[in-house]
Each structure stands twice: as C-alpha cells, then as structure tokens.
Design a protein that fits this description.
The complex is a heterodimer of chains A (77) and B (294).
Chain A lengths: L8 H11 L1 H8 L1 H12 L9 H19 L8
Chain B lengths: L11 H18 L5 H22 L5 H13 L2 H8 L11 H11 L7 H13 L17 H11 L11 H7 L3 H54 L19 H4 L6 H6 L8 H14 L8
Helix pairs in contact in B: 1-12, 2-3, 2-4, 2-5, 3-9, 4-5, 4-6, 7-9, 8-9
Classes of the chains: A mainly alpha (77), B mainly alpha (294).
C-alpha cells in the first residue's frame, strides 16, 4: 500500500461527518430543541413561521457560523 | 510560602531518608478495595439513568432533574479515575473485573471512554506541566476566570489541545484503536441527542445530558486539572502540583486540595489522601513543596 492510499470508506465518512459536525449539530439537534423550547414557552415566531422553521433558521445560521469560524461562542477557535 | 523558601539544600542522605519515610507513610494508605468509589460509580450512574424514564413519564419535572443530572455527571469522573490507577483492583487479581467495570461504566454520562481517559491521564502523570507532552497542559491559565474561559474555548470545534487534543496524544502513543473508541462514543452521543430531539425529547436531551455535561466538564477541568497544577510552570516530582485550600472545601473541590499526594502516590485511594497528606506534610515541607495554607 502506498503512502497516498485512500483510507477505507468508513473512515472517510467518519472524517467528513466530524468535519461538518457543527453544521450537522446546527441542523439536526438545534431545530427540534428550539421548536420544543418555543412551544413550551408559548411563544409565536414572527412572520407566521413554524417553531421548527424558526429552529432551522437559528440552527442553520449558528451552525454555519461555527462551521466557518471553528467556534460556537467566539470569533475564533 | 515558607515551604518554597528552601534555604538549606538537602544532602543525598537527607533525600534518601525522606524518601524512605515518605514511602513508609504512603504504603500505610494503599491497598484494599475502596468500596465507596465502587458504590459511588454504580449509584451515580443508576441515578442518572433513572432520571430519563422519570422525566419522560412525568414522575419528575425536568427543572428538578437538571441539577441532579449535572451533579451526576460532575461526579462521574472520579470513580473512573480510581480505576485508571488500578486502585480498585490490580491486574491479575480476583476483582479486576470490578475495576474495569467501574472504569468503563462511570464515565458514560461524560462521554469519555475508559481507555481514552486512562491513557491520556497516565501520560499527564508522566509529563505533568510539560508544554509538549502533558495532555492537560492546555488548562494552564492565569486565574480562575481565565481557566473557565479557556475550558469553554478548548471545547470548540476547531480548538486545539484540551479534550480536542486527546486524539493527537493517542496517535502519538500509537493507539489508533483507542482513538476509534473516542470517535464511536462521540457519534453515539450526538446520534442519541439528535434521535431524542426528533422523537420529541429535545429538552430532555438538552437538560439531562448536553448542558449538564458541559457544566460538568468545566467543573472537572477547573478542579482536577487547573487548580491543583496552577501555575503549571514547574516540573518535577515535588514541584509539578500543589496542596491548596479551596473556597468550596475538600468535598466541593472533589478532594483535589490534596492532589499533591495523588501525584506522589497515585495508588492511594482518593478518600485516604487527606489523612496521608497530614502525615506526609513535614516531609513535603522539607522537600520544598508548595502547600499553601493547607
């Protein structure tokens, strides 16, 4: 096997998953949790959007920010 | 700071005598099974696991379960720490399975696999305060507030060092297999969080696991990693850690006031380190250790 041989497909999928971890967390965890917080608090999202859509907007933007910056809470990792 | 102003250098004979006395005292506190740590490990895990059905079936409100879960996860590390040092049972002994069971199970809520914790922790003991080799060197900070900020920053996606740096440490040790354990734990953790969230239990996932884990990691890194090694600039058996007095007391700081005893004699069980410290204190003073006001 040469030094430049590609790692197994499972490893490449794992690496890709971890690389896009912040975006995935922003799209897979934050939206339903946000929707449940909005519903439990009795809030109504603006412009008639659903609680889940509001969650996707929040999670998408925050996840993208964390993906690009490398940090959820600061401007740099 | 009188203990740091070592004016009379120790002779070789002094050092030999001190070492002999130190070993004799330390041996008195070693051995036996620390059953409290075993009970602690399983009871703590059982309580944390029980919170899930209790909350999901509305027997316990989430607001009440959140602080309990946080406390559970804060308490989840130390039993594993005893196992990492083979304190519960040495390899080859009858109760070795119990040592390994405690090590593997107790840190599940913390999402920290036993072998990841053990290998990196033993590396910390070998290279305490070495900027290049100590896996926990990243917790070095100027003061308490800085320590908390660094702890939070070190857990960000592209931060280096700290928990994020454990993978590199394991690769350096040639333990890719253990890196995979860490990856599998992380995947299972985030997979479960997302699964719970889409099943309608997002708040439970958030307040019984995700947020308590971050609070617990901050607490654990502060009291187990930053405080006992502060200022983290000195290396050597009698210099790389210290005794110190915590405003939260010994229980509130998880026994870490006596962390110097643990570094000198890692197989002394946690609950015996205060008594061992009191007996060892004159020797530690003679060695020029930093003992603060403890």
């Amino acid at each position: 096997m040469s030094d430049t041989a590609k790692p197994p497909i499972a490893i490449r999928i794992l690496r890709t998953g971890f690389h896009f971890g912040p975006l995935l967390f922003g799209l897979l965890f934050i939206p339903p949790v946000t929707a449940q917080i909005i519903t439990a608090a009795g809030w109504t999202p603006p412009s008639g959007i659903s609680p889940l859509a509001a969650g996707f907007i929040l999670g998408g933007i925050w996840g993208l920010y964390a993906q690009i910056r490398g940090s959820w809470i600061s401007w740099r990792a | 700071m009188a203990s740091l102003t070592e004016t009379t250098p120790l002779t070789a004979a002094d050092r030999k005598r001190l070492m002999r006395d130190e070993q004799a005292i330390a041996r008195k506190y070693m051995g036996g099974v620390p059953w409290l740590a075993v009970f602690w490990a399983f009871a703590n895990l059982a309580i944390w696991l029980a919170l899930w059905p209790l909350v999901m079936l509305d027997y316990l409100p989430l607001w009440a379960a959140f602080p309990i879960a946080t406390l559970n996860i804060m308490l989840s590390y130390l039993p594993s720490h005893e196992a990492q040092h083979d304190i519960i049972a040495r390899p080859g002994t009858k109760l070795r399975w119990l040592n390994q069971a405690v090590g593997w199970l107790s840190t599940i809520p913390l999402v920290l696999p036993y072998r990841v914790a053990k290998l990196t922790h033993l590396e910390h003991h070998r290279h305490t305060n070495d900027p290049d080799l100590d896996p926990d060197y990243n917790t070095k900070a100027d003061g308490p507030f800085h320590a908390v900020v660094k702890s939070l920053v070190s857990r960000q996606p592209r931060a280096s060092g700290g928990l994020n740096g454990y993978g590199e440490v394991l690769m350096r040790l040639g333990r890719q297999d253990v890196v995979m354990e860490g990856v599998i734990f992380q995947m299972a953790f985030y997979g479960l969080l997302c699964g719970l969230a889409w099943a309608g239990f997002g708040l439970e996932a958030l307040l019984l696991w995700w947020l308590p884990r971050h609070i617990a990691l901050t607490y654990i890194l502060f009291f187990l990693s930053w405080a006992p090694h502060h200022p983290g600039t000195r290396q050597g058996r009698y210099r790389n850690t210290r005794a110190w007095r915590s405003v939260l007391g010994n229980i509130g700081s998880m026994g870490m006031q006596y962390h110097i005893v643990h570094h000198l004699h890692p197989t002394i069980p946690l609950t015996r380190t205060p008594a061992a410290y009191r007996e060892l204190r004159p020797i530690l003073e003679a060695r020029g250790c930093e003992l603060g006001t403890l």
